[in-house]
């Protein structure tokens, strides 16, 4: 599955980074999300769950999962 981030919607709250720092970081200049890995291996249940949780907790709705079953 693929993670997409809408930088125009991102408010830099950092909830994604707190949820899964292996997938997300924040831009040092404006705090908006930086995707460290745009693809998540469907076979890695823990990482998939973390990606879903990050999408769920994003206060601005800037994250989405493409190809999530």
TrEMBL record:
Q: Which UniProt keywords apply?
A: 3Fe-4S, Electron transport, Iron, Iron-sulfur, Metal-binding, Transport
Q: Does the keyword Iron-sulfur apply?
A: yes
Which Gene Ontology terms cover its molecular function? 3 iron, 4 sulfur cluster binding; electron transfer activity; iron ion binding
Against Gene3D superfamilies, the record matches this protein to: 3.30.70.20
State the InterPro entries in the record.
Answer: 3Fe4S_ferredoxin (IPR001080), Fe-S_cluster_ET (IPR051269)
Q: What cofactors are annotated for this protein?
A: [3Fe-4S] cluster
**Keyword Electron transport carried by entry:** yes
Q: What does this protein do?
A: Ferredoxins are iron-sulfur proteins that transfer electrons in a wide variety of metabolic reactions.
In its UniProt entry, what is this protein called? Ferredoxin
Source organism: Saccharopolyspora elongata
């Amino acid at each position: 599955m693929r993670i997409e981030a809408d930088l125009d919607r991102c408010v830099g709250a950092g909830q994604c980074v707190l949820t899964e720092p292996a997938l997300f970081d924040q831009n040092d200049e404006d705090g908006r999300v930086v995707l460290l890995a745009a693809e998540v291996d469907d076979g890695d249940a823990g990482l998939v769950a973390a990606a879903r949780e990050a999408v769920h907790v994003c206060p601005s709705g800037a994250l989405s999962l493409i190809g999530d079953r």
